[in-house]
């Protein structure tokens, strides 16, 4: 076990950087946080583990995990005060430092099953959308250039681990992608109600950030979720309703 007591330590400085998309990209690491998420991950450790972070009251979980038997994973012990600075979502549980997988560019021109396009820049919104996407049978999630990192700790927490399970692909700017694809359905305040829509089996559905949405973007098939007494729903709530509507027709 490697003990670290100073903020100037290179490991600590690097981990402190992993609460931002820039830091995750720079160091090619992200931190998995949360007892349940870590327990589920250790049952099927499908990302390379680069280290485990504990404090004086925590025992290593990687040393006793059956699927990791025989693997040497470095364990770093921090004082509680430093540990809490790394534990940005406040789990008070062991932290795993993982190596993110390279997100492949999307090369298929046509949808295969239900595909969800996300230009969401808010980590919590992206995570919530990924959770619903996995729950309702999406075959993949497509991240645009505007999207936040799927390995952001808040995104992974909000996804309940779905971002570690969903096949992820990337494209450039959403507007550029739309200009070359005419079968993308976007949730918008104006459009055909998803309650009456006959979903194609193979479809790409996009959600926009609250506020700007898809203003000014042409070549989109627009769908809406009808509401009463409120102008609109949270983007991920509306997205979940649309995904559920699709799944009811194509189970």
List the helices and strands and how they pair.
Blueprint: E1 2-3, H1 10-16, H2 21-27, E2 30-32, H3 35-43, E3 49-55, E4 75-78, H4 80-86, E5 95-98, E6 104-105, E7 114-118, H5 123-135, E8 140-143, H6 153-158, E9 168-170, H7 174-179, E10 184-193, E11 203-206, E12 221-224, H8 235-249
Parallel strand pairs: 1-4, 3-4, 6-9, 7-8, 7-11, 8-9, 10-11, 10-12
Antiparallel strand pairs: 2-5, 3-5
Can you offer a commentary on this structure?
The chain has 251 residues and is α/β, with parallel strands linked by helices. It is 28% helix and 21% strand. It has eight helices and twelve strands. It has helices spanning 10-16, 21-27, 35-43, 80-86, 123-135, 153-158, 174-179, 235-249, and strands at 2-3, 30-32, 49-55, 75-78, 95-98, 104-105, 114-118, 140-143, 168-170, 184-193, 203-206, 221-224. The strands form two sheets. The chain has a seven-stranded parallel β-sheet with strand order 6-9-8-7-11-10-12. A five-stranded mixed β-sheet has the order 1-4-3-5-2. β8 (140-143), α6 (153-158) and β9 (168-170) form a beta-alpha-beta unit. α5 packs parallel to α8 (235-249). The longest helix has 15 residues, at 235-249. The protein is elongated and about 60 Å long.
């Amino acid at each position: 076990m490697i003990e670290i007591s100073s903020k100037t330590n290179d490991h600590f400085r690097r981990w402190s950087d992993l609460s931002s998309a820039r830091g995750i990209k720079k160091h090619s690491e992200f931190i998995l946080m949360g007892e349940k998420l870590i327990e589920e991950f250790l049952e099927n450790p499908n990302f390379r583990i680069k280290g485990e972070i504990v404090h004086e009251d925590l025992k290593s979980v990687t040393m006793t995990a059956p699927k990791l038997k025989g693997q040497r994973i470095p364990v770093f012990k921090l004082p509680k005060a430093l540990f809490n600075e790394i534990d940005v979502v406040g789990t008070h549980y062991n932290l795993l430092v993982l190596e993110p997988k390279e997100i492949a560019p999307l090369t298929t021109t046509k949808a295969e099953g239900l595909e969800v396009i996300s230009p969401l820049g808010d980590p919590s919104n992206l995570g919530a959308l990924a959770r619903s996407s996995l729950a309702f049978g999406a075959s993949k999630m497509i991240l645009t250039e505007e999207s936040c990192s799927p390995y952001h700790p808040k995104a992974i927490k909000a996804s309940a681990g779905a971002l570690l399970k969903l096949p992820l692909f990337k494209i450039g700017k959403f507007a550029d992608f739309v200009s070359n694809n005419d079968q993308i359905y976007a949730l918008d305040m104006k459009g055909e109600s998803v309650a009456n829509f006959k979903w194609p089996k193979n479809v790409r559905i996009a959600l926009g950030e609250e506020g700007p949405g898809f203003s000014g973007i042409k070549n989109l098939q627009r769908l809406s979720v009808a509401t009463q007494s409120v102008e609109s729903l949270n983007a991920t709530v509306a997205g979940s309703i649309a995904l559920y509507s699709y799944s009811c027709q194509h189970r």
